[in-house]
Amino acid sequence: MATPLKVILIGTGGVGGHALRGLIANPQYKRAGVWVSSDAKAARDAGELAGLDISTEVIATTDLDALLANKPDCAV
Question: Do residues 38 and 12 make contact, with C-beta atoms less than 8 angstroms apart?
């Protein structure tokens, strides 16, 4: 298997929520972070934000610069 792509997700709204579920389900992607626009969503697990009953240990943040500093392969 190829090395998973390191991906950050920017936004968890209607479309972002669907994208996040896809990223969580696909082992070809390594979730490197999730950016959210509101403090209400910050510090929550990506699995919870995706509406899934799992913990991904990826915690949402409002700090986009910090996510980009991790040098992801791509952003969704």
Answer: no
